Amino acid sequence: MSSAEVAVQVFRKLENEDLRVLQVIETAMSKHEFVPKEQIAKFSEFSMRETDFRLSRLNKLWLIRQTRGAYVGHTLNYAGYDCLAINALVKASVLEAFGKPLGVGKEADVYDALSPERERIAVKFHRLGRISFRQTRRKRNYTAQRVNWLFQSRRAAEKEFKALKLVSQKRVAVPRPISQNRHVIVMGMIEGAELAEWKEIPKPTKILEEILFNIRKAYIKAGVIHADLSEYNVILKPNMRILIIDWPQYVTKEHPNAQQLLARDVKNILGYFERKRMLKTKLKKALAYVTGNSKAASF
Question: Which region holds residue 144: left if phi is over 0, alpha if psi is between -120 and 50, else beta?
């Protein structure tokens, strides 16, 4: 069972006192890897007996971890952090109920959900730390040397939400950004499947043109480059329109490696269509188009 599944199942069981303890631990984790029990009692303003009861309860619900050494300390795990974010989104009238998982990846869990207005939405839980620290540090510019995966995931969510707002304002085909709290992003519903999951794509030329057109809009109008684009983060919807997802690695046109990252994005997409023996397109021609140096939209 994933951390998000644990959080979704136990959230309704939590009492205000449980959430208070989780919040105290979260705040104190900026200074402690494992927060001393005495400090939790002090800042929650609970008696030691009540604190012990709450910590035992949260531990049994798989929301915290405990260590015993020079002192007894506690830290949040992902499920506990999930519950804090869910609670904030519920209180903000953004989130009402969860449905089924839409996808579980190396760095995120995505769920179908409902807003209080009964609108279907997607909830994405960032999950840095599933890949190795060395790989993450190499690929991610928001990873500090002293890693706390919960807070690094929060930074990833903040960055992705910012990217979604920037490009959606320019009508790039992305999920509609709704809200963000901690490591969780709430977006418009995501329906369809990754390009990589499609065995056969009808009208591949039209699909490729739409992808390149959206890369072009993001670059020219929003000044944004995805920087991790491939067939795994382009969704082909049932109506054969696309969505480009997963933006936490985005860079702006001013980034020193902007052109190399843009070229890699385009090369990855062209490579997918070529490997599937659907289309073969020259990288130079496609790059000229997405950067605005060519008006040709036909490949």
Answer: beta
